Amino acid sequence: MSGVPGEFASVRKLLLGRMDGLTPGERKVARALLAQYPTVGLTTAAQLAAAADVSAPTVIRFATRLGFEGFPGLQRALLHELHSEGGSPLVQYEEKPPAYPQGILRGTRQAFVDMIDASYDGIPESEFSALVDLLSDTSRAVCLVGGRFSHVLADYLLLHLRLLRTGVRMVGEDEADRLVAVADAGTQSVFVMFDYRRYTDANLRLAQAVSRRGATVALMTDNWLSPIAKVSKVVLPCRVQSASPFDSLVVAMAVTESLVAGVAGALGEGGRARLTLIESVSLDD
To answer: Locate the HTH rpiR-type domain: which residues (predicted)?
Structure first.
């Protein structure tokens, strides 16, 4: 017996399946646990609370809401999972990059396919749908922010969103641009932050500043979770491991494409009408 409530095969799958029913504080606990899974769940309730930036009672309520007999019940399920999977080739594969006897091209192709599958399985549908809803709400102003490499993802999303709706802008690295973005931020603002490991301190400060002004922060990050997660209402994590010395944005780009598809579908005829208008506009007299 795994000790996991319901029909879920693991605590991880339980968290992903129940994310939508958690309170904002409990959702922070779930994200912290997923980011350092399962080890942080095997510490004390106070330590998990510190990792999630919530109170210890919130951690206990979180465990109970999931159906466990308190925090000890959650830990027993995690220990059972750890002992059951400790020798799994899949777990070792994730911890240690595999060799590619079939060659780099074919080997990395399969590695990226596996990464996409694992990442999409790890994204709660409720979180994805929430971000699509935010980006499709044309009453909201959308600001996109990237990092050293991830700015290409922000740029890519910008190029598509502005074809489908108005009120989308990029926030650059320039300090004046960021100060204006903070001044303009309010309850009808959505800031989509792309932040992957070797996280950007400047982006964290920006996210904290706009959050204090009432803006909704949505985070695109890796499976370890950027510190921006602590002020984010929506978090979409994905894997970034690569065969090269550099982290990969392959999965992050795929998730960005999924967001574009979701927004296009949600806007429907409105998005189509805007695209038609843009293509019909002429700059000639």
So the answer is: 9-85
Span 164-178, pLDDT tens digits? 999 999 999 999 999
C-alpha distance from residue 229 to each of 17, 61, 155, 195 (Å): 19, 20, 21, 10
Q: How far, rounded to the nearest angstrom, does the alpha carbon of residue 162 sit from its chain's CA centroid? A: 22
106-136 as b/e: b if 16+ CB within 10 A: ebbeebbebbbebbeebbbebbbebbbebbb
Q: In this predicted model, what pLDDT tens digit does every residue of 17-59 receive, in sequence order? A: 899 899 999 999 999 998 888 888 888 999 999 999 999 999 9
Q: Which residues contact 124 (CB under 8 A, 6 or more apart)?
A: 16, 17, 19, 20
- Note the pLDDT of residue 111: 83
Q: What are phi and psi of 101, to 5 degrees?
A: -65, -25
* End-to-end Cα spacing for the chain: 75
Final residue of a domain: which of 57, 85, 113? 85
**How many angstroms separate the CA atoms of 240 and 111, rounded?**
11
Full residue range of the structural domain in which residue 16 is found:
11-85
Task: Give residue 91's pLDDT band: very low, low, confident or very high (50, 70, 90).
Answer: very low
List for the chain the helix, strand, coil content (%; round to 5).
Answer: 60, 10, 30
